[in-house]
Amino acid sequence: MYIDESRDINIDNNVFFRAERQIVYVGLVREYTFTNNLLVLAEKRTEISAMLVLTKLTEDVACYEQYKELISPKTDNVLVKNNLAQGS
Question: How far apart are CA 54 and CA 40, in angstroms?
């Protein structure tokens, strides 16, 4: 799930299963809640895994990624709590 340049979003009580790189990525958001979700199995992108091994580069893999410099939890009314991530 890719969320960017959005507002007034509530994502609650969901199960997200298997994604490449990030299961949920959050860019610039306002008035946003992400609570009580289960995120399972974030993996490396298959099309570049072999190339990364040869070049010794790494790729960030995460169940939940939020670009912190775009968001201020105090002024942008952003709440992320009570989520469980497994297998990243």
Answer: 28
